[in-house]
Design brief:
It contains 7 helices and 5 strands, in the order ααααβααββββα. It is of the alpha+beta class and 157 residues long. The protein folds into 2 domains: 62 residues; 80 residues, 3-Layer(aba) Sandwich (Glutaredoxin). Strands 2-3-1-4-5 form a 5-stranded mixed sheet. α1 crosses α3, α3 packs across α4 and α6 packs parallel to α7. The termini are far apart. The mean pLDDT is 95.
Length: 157
């Protein structure tokens, strides 16, 4: 029986093999790894690099550049709060701090119960409805204290 590390490596190789014949396969491979595991397994950079004839450092550089690639599984909900200037100009900084206090989390943290991960993002494109956030892929605009409380209730249930 193969151990978890062996099964992980086999799955990583399967993902690479599904993309290797295409031009510039690294980002699609990383996206599929993220979708498949929910995070980047510890050995992902080494295995992918070996299979694509890239250094581990090259693969790690791409993984670390994009904020959506995680080193650990995210919570059941992911709350991304806009930190860009348009949101900040209408109280976004204060609302972000309010959400952090309500959740008891800092940026890039996941609640101990696994309910939610809190992440900063730099523009959701919802500037006309600032301050804005995105919960599990759904945009939320004009966040005020009431909306913040509703978000927290939703992620904690």
């Amino acid at each position: 029986m193969r151990n978890d590390a062996g099964r992980t490596e086999e799955r990583l190789i399967d993902i690479v093999n599904g993309w290797i014949a295409r031009e510039a396969p690294l980002l699609p491979i990383l996206n599929e790894v993220q979708a498949s595991f929910g995070y980047m397994p510890e050995n992902a950079a080494a295995v992918i690099g070996r299979e694509l004839n890239l250094s581990r450092a090259e693969v790690h550089g791409v993984i670390s550049f994009y904020h959506d690639f995680r080193k650990e599984p995210a919570g059941r909900h992911v709350l991304k709060v806009c930190r860009a200037e348009a949101c900040q100009s209408v109280g976004g900084r204060e609302m972000a701090e309010h959400l952090k206090r309500l959740l008891g989390l800092d940026w890039h943290e996941t609640a101990a119960d696994g309910s939610v991960t809190l992440e900063p993002v730099y523009c959701l494109g919802l500037c006309a409805c600032a301050p804005a956030a995105m919960l599990d892929g759904e945009m939320i605009g004009r966040i005020d204290e009431q909306v913040a409380a509703e978000i927290v209730r939703e992620v904690r249930t």
